Amino acid sequence: QQQVKQSPQSLIVQKGGISIINCAYENTAFDYFPWYQQFPGKGPALLIAIRPDVSEKKEGRFTISFNKSAKQFSLHIMDSQPGDSATYFCAAVDSNYQLIWGAGTKLIIKP
Amino acid sequence: DTEVTQTPKHLVMGMTNKKSLKCEQHMGHRAMYWYKQKAKKPPELMFVYSYEKLSINESVPSRFSPECPNSSLLNLHLHALQPEDSALYLCASSQAGTGMRTQYFGPGTRLLVL
Question: Which of the residues A2, A9, A99 would you substitute to probe the B interface, choosing the one with the greatest number of B C-beta atoms within 10 Å?
Fold first, then answer.
């Protein structure tokens, strides 16, 4: 119940394309869903986050889509750029305010 | 200032050494965290400090000893580590209470135990 399942494990997208990463959860007590971006040798950086009472949130080229009934959420990166190449982690926040992490997706944007 | 800083960036130590990792933030955050991250894995929570008091210890071996001298500083004292403790050690901070939903991470200390 405390798991967040993330897919795919790795993703290769052409420059200018749309990158889509999916996550699913079981625990309906999760009440906040952040996405983190991590470059090699760096710490994770908060990218965008959503609450479960919102179905979509957009910040620039990054959009979270949230489906509460299906207990799924996804990150869409529009017009993907080589600089977006990184590992992306979805997460959920539990009732103790702890981050429950997905396994991560390594994204490579081909020029 | 929205930065969490960590020193050193890299650390190599033998199994009999004693060393310390340092973390600092000036965002006025009252919750600070230590995470351990192995390659190709998500961060694993080790310790949480809230208002300078240890609130969560995720069953971490006693060879790791955290310390929070004040609201801006967090240390992790290392002693008699094992090679399997080699990892990226991340510090994070956040507002306390419901603000703990949003954590800000430092760049990490890459630790190698020989």
Answer: A99
